[in-house]
Amino acid sequence: MKKRTKTCDDIRTVVKTKQSLRRNKKSDMIDTRRIAKQKLETMGGVKRINTSKKRGGTNMYLDNDIVIDFPLPLSLQDDIKELDRDFSSGNDLHFALVLEIFEATAKQSYINGNITAEQLNLLFRRYGLR
Fold first, then answer.
1. pLDDT at 62
2. Which of 62, 69, 70, 66 has the alpha carbon at shortest distance from 102?
3. Which residues, 6+ apart, have CB-to-CB distance to 11 below 8 Å?
């Protein structure tokens, strides 16, 4: 009987620990939106367009001070052309979709060795991803 009681007590302790971790998890979360907003406000040379309020006032970012003067894979070149076109036309929804594809493609190009870490950082900074 005593062994069984110890096991039950151990289980209760584990359950209580997990419950307290779940409660603390919400309070330990980082407000990434606030941090990103502060980061973008402190960056120089960033164009910012506030678009339709119907979609929550989404923002598009493009830093024209960062020049891409290194060779890129064709898929990245196509994504950059699309992003620039969407930015100049103000098509924020399509811009956001292509930006996610661009981010994944750029990361994969870095993993494959097609671009360096510095080039990846420049690409991400140009579109406000870093």
1. 87
2. 62
3. none
Tokens of 116: 């360096």
Successive 10-residue mean pLDDT values, the chain, 130 residues:
56 60 50 54 48 46 88 93 90 90 95 95 92
Model-wide pTM > 0.70: no
How many DSSP H helices and E strands does the chain contain?
5, 2
Rounded distance between C-alpha atoms, residue 90 and residue 52, angstroms = 10
Q: How is residue 110 written in tokens?
A: 């870095």
Ramachandran class of 106: left when φ > 0, alpha when ψ lies in -120 to 50, beta otherwise: alpha
pLDDT at site 60:
83
Q: Other CB atoms closer than 10 Å to residue 36's CB: what's the count? A: 13
Residue written as token pair 């990245």: 76
